[in-house]
Structures are given as C-alpha cells and as structure tokens.
Amino acid sequence: MSIEIWTLYVATVLALMSTPGPSQLLVLTNSGVHGFRRSLATAAGDLSANALQMLAAGLGLAALIAASSVALAVIKWAGVAYLIWLGVRMIRQAKPDDPAFRGQRTKTPLRRLWMQGFLTSAANPKAVVFFAALFPQFISVDSLFWPQFLILSVTYIVLDGLFLSAYGLASSWIVQRFRGTARVWIERVGGSFMIGAALLLGLKSISRQ
C-alpha cells in the first residue's frame, strides 16, 4: 500500500468521524461521570466491537448479514432498545455531586463500562457492511490482501481511539473546571443524545422497510 493511498484513507476516515455518534457520546458521558481513565474501558469496548466487525467484513460475513433481513432487523432493534435503556438510566442516575454519590459512582466495574461500549458499537450491524464497502476502495489487487487489510484496520482503530480519547478528555476537563452541576448536566445531555440516536436509528429502520 502506497503512502498516497494510506493518506487518502486517513482523510476519508477523519471525515467520517467528524460527526459524533452514540459511542462518542457514551465515552463523553462516562468520562464526566466516572473519570477519564475509567472511560477508557468504554472506549476499549467500542474498539473491540469494531475489530470484530472488521474481521467479519474481511472474512466475507458482510454478505451473509446483508442478505438476512430478519437477522439485521433483530440486531438493529435490540440495539435501539439497549440505547434507549442506557439513555434513560443515565438521566435517572443524574444526581448532585455529593460525596456519598461520588463514592458510589467510582465503584462501577470496569467490565460494565467495557460492555456498555461494546454493546453500543455492536448495536449497529451495518458496520460490518460499512467496513466491507470501505476497505476495498483502498486495497490493491496487485498486493496481498491481509497485510493491506491489517493496515487499514489498525489505522481505523487508532484514529477512532484518538477521537474517543479526545471526547473523554474534553468531558473530564469540563467537569473538573466547573464541578458542581457540570457532571449532572453532562449525564443528562448524554442520556438525551443517546435516546435521540436510538430513535433516529429506529426511524431509519422504519423508513427503509
């Protein structure tokens, strides 16, 4: 893979990531509530799901998922329900930053934060189809497939990780600077955006049926 093709790929991915999605909003919220370091577990869950989706695309499973409208609908609506539940839970748990509540928040298991990130990313089954459509645009038939696929996959994960970290750092900075009700409002806004993202995903599903 030439440096020119790789640079074009990076520019394309950056353009695609310029608009925040549910995963970015979840990391932003968890960073404000649980702290930046703990929010990295959420980012790791998102990246783990992306890695599996890329692998599925590379192995040709995208065609199977795209061909099965029933499986696609089940996975998508399960994802919609999970995002709505997560958003409502965030809003209901938004409370003033008193010592007792802060102590309770820090006990959230990292495994749960990781699972939130994983399920939020996995809720979009079309991500496999997306990767299957994106990667061939930058893969040369004159070179070995898997080395090129590995470069594209690692590049995407690194860029996505940087974006997620930037959202987490920004949220953590806001909470530390303003304190008080900042944490509460970050969680309320994050939960509202999560519900909104789920509704948009559901409306998109209905419009295409």
Summarize this, please?
This protein has helices at residues 3-16, 22-34, 36-58, 61-67, 69-93, 99-105, 110-122, 126-134, 145-178, 182-207. The protein is an all-alpha fold. The protein has one domain.
Please provide a written account of the structure.
The model is unreliable at 100-106 (pLDDT under 50). It is built from ten helices and no strands. With 209 residues, the chain is mainly α. It has one domain (3-8, 22-207). α2 packs antiparallel against α3 (36-58).
Annotation keywords:
single chain, 209 residues, mainly alpha, 10 helices, 82% helix, 0% strand
Average per-residue pLDDT, rounded, comes to: 77
**What oligomeric state is this?**
single chain
Give the strand tally: 0
Structural class: mainly alpha
Q: Span from first to last CA?
A: 39 Å
H-E string: HHHHHHHHHH
Helix-residue proportion = over 70%
How big a fraction of the residues is strand?
A: under 5%
Give the topology.
Layout: H1 3-16, H2 22-34, H3 36-58, H4 61-67, H5 69-93, H6 99-105, H7 110-122, H8 126-134, H9 145-178, H10 182-207
